[in-house]
Sequence to fold (229 residues):
Amino acid sequence: MNRTVVELLADNAEHADAFAGRFDEVQDGQHPEAVTVCCSDSRVLQDQLFGNDTPGRLFTCSNIGNRVVQRTDAGEVVSGDVLYPLAHTGTRTAIVVGHTGCGAVTATYGVLTGDIDADSEPPGIRHCVGLLAPHLEPGVGLLPEGLDRTEAVNRLVEYNVDRQVDHLVGSDDVPDDASVVGVVYDFQDVYGAERGEVHVINVDGERDPDALRTEHAEVADRIGRLWTY
Fold:
C-alpha cells in the first residue's frame, strides 16, 4: 500500500488508543459548543489550533477560502455544512478562521487584478474562486497604496473573514442568538506574536479593535487587525 497511507494508519492506531475512552458521551448524538469554518490549507490544524482533543466539542468545516456561502437556485445562502449545527444541534457559536498567506485569497486577488486567468483553472477551483471574487472585489479597491503582494493578500484575508461573518450575521437561517466571531490564524509572523496564535478581528460584525477590546476585555490581548477600512 501507499507509504503515506501506511504511516497514517499507524498514526491512527495511536489516536485510537489515546481516544478509546473519550467517545462515551457522544455515542448517540452531538451538541458541539462551536462550529468552526476553516480554510482547508494543510497548515491550518483545525482542532489543534484550539487545543481541542474532546470529541463532540467542535463541529469543523473546511474549504479553500473558509467560505460560509454556497450558490443555489435561490442565490447565495449559508452553506449547509456550516448551518447544520446551528440549526440542529443547539450550537450557538460560529467561528470563521482565516489564515495568513491564504492561497485561495491569493488566487482570487490574482484573478481580480488580472495576474491570473481564471479560465486556466479546473472547473472546481474556478467555481470556488468565483464564490470568493464578488466578496473580495470591493476590498481590492480599498487597499492602501504601496503594499506588496504579500501585504495586500494578508489584508484581504481579514476582509474575506469580515465578509463571511457578515453573511452569517445577516442570514435569516442563522439563529438570532448565535454569536459569530472572525479570527485569523497566523503562522507567518505577520501579527508579531507567537506563531500559531489566533487573532480576533470581528465579533458579530464589529470590526473596530478598540471597541472590541472594550467589549471583550478578557481577551483584549488577542484582539488586533492589520487593517481598518
